[in-house]
Amino acid sequence: MVDLDDAGFATAQIHAGQAPAEHGARVTPIHLSAGFAFDDLGDGRDRFADADAGFSYTRIGNPTVAALERKVAALERGVDAIAVGSGQAATTVALLGIVGAGDHVLAARSIYEGTRGLLRENLARLGVEVTFIADANDPQAWREAARPTTRACFAETIPNPKNDVTDIALVASLADELGVPLVIDSTFTTPYLLRPLEHGAAVVVHSASKFLAGHGAALGGVVVAGDRFDWGAQPGRFPHLTEPVRSLGGRSYVDVHGRGAFAAYARHAVASRLGPALSPMHAFLVQQGIETLSLRIGRHSANALEVASWLEAQPQVASVDYVGLPSHAHHDVARRVLSNGFGSVFTVEVRGGEAGAAAFLDALTLTTQMSHLGDVRTLALHPASTSHALLDADERAELGIRDGHVRLSIGIEDAADIIADLARGLVAVEAVLASERRPRLLEPA
Ligand SMILES: *Cc1c(COP(=O)(O)O)cnc(C)c1O
After folding, report:
1. What DSSP line would sit under 341-381, residue for residue?
2. What is the mean pLDDT of residues 287-301?
């Protein structure tokens, strides 16, 4: 394998994780095989006893998936990564690797709706409690909500639809105070814009279905673990990691894996038992996406900045929530925390409320209306009637979601063509506004 210790990001995104393959195949082959033959009985015994002795069954490990795991771990500067079938599976595996019944999680309030549901409904049914923090960058809010049973803090790098930026170092130092790991969903930033482990996070999760795969074809998720957090520092805090287990010959995960205890547990006791395995086919597609990550994210970010700046100047637009704009409240945090750009998912509020948003969206021809993001194609979504439709008006107001809001995921087409399409949408908004302004006298009796 190439020595990549001093290599730049673009070099690492191509070469990291690759192992020499049969016949000199230069690209990691798709190992579509449910299982892997043992050389003999002794070899079978070894592979069952020691996870590092080789592959046995694809739910537990697969060479194509393992190559992707090494690549993402290297790009995030983590020590281990576990690739699973979706981002939602990654968050589930990460949290179930840390908490159990009776434990409490502190989570930023503005997070992916699927994650909020997982915490509020699924994990709640298993006896895990959660408190949501309204302002993730207010350390006092985390401190006040902490309980003796708090075992994890959770936040996203750039939650949507509001384009806030989490000051990860600040939340990490708070998590350190509490003696609990910080889990960061870095889907919107990818390791090209931000590496949460370098800011003090203990675990990073990704929906690889978004920017990492990048082409809107494959689903995937990744959990990445760093080596900063000491899982055995406080006896009794994470008993599943510090108490002896039979599969480790009566030793604990911490005894055997040290600071890698969480990653080993999440892989062997959570992911492989709950079973959200990543298909080797999708692992291949995600790894191909990552090979061009810096090129795509650079272009996504540049396009987004150009489009957001243009939108902000249009009379039919009430506001643009994009951290790349100096007008955004978190612009300074973003400049400090992000490198190489500000990402490409943001919200625009058109005038005219829901009627304005509908006219805008329905007039777009290049942009696709769909519930996805991080695609090479420009996508748009009306959060109030789709991703956040189940919330009542008060909850939507708390999250800052208004009827005129449209979430955009700016693609890597020519910026001029994206702008021309959005201009079509604003012409339709103008028609709605004009009909509202028309004096009542002219309306049919
Ligand atoms: C999409 C998304 C997820 C869930 O990922 P899937 O791959 O769709 O399961 C989690 N977090 C964020 C921030 C996302 O955008």
Report:
1. ---SEEEEEETTHHHHHHHHHHH-SSSEE-S--S-SS-EEE
2. 98
* Pocket flag, ligand 1, residue 163 (CB < 6 Å): no
CA 220 to ligand 1: nearest atom: 7
Residues in the chain: 445
Q: What is the mean pLDDT of residues 163-177?
A: 96
What's the token pair of residue 57? 């069954």
Give dist(CA 224, CA 208) in Å, integer. 12
Instruction: Give the pLDDT confidence of 190-201 residue by residue, as tens digits.
Output: 999 999 999 999
Res. 231 pLDDT band, cuts 50 70 90: very high
Q: Please report the pLDDT score of residue 395 as a whole number.
A: 86
pTM of the model: 0.96
CA of 249 to the centre of ligand 1 (A): 37
d(CA 277, CA 69): 13
| Ligand 1: centre distance to CA 386 (Å) | 15
- Closest Cα partner for 205 from 97, 345, 283? 97
φ, ψ of residue 21 to 5 degrees: the values are -115, 160
Q: Given pLDDT bands bounded at 50, 70 and 90, which one contains residue 438?
A: confident
pLDDT at 445 over 80: no
356 Cβ closer than 6 Å to some ligand 1 atom: no
Residues 280 and 286: beta-carbon distance below 8 Å = no
Bridge partner residues of 204 (DSSP): 184, 224
Coil, helix or strand for 17? coil
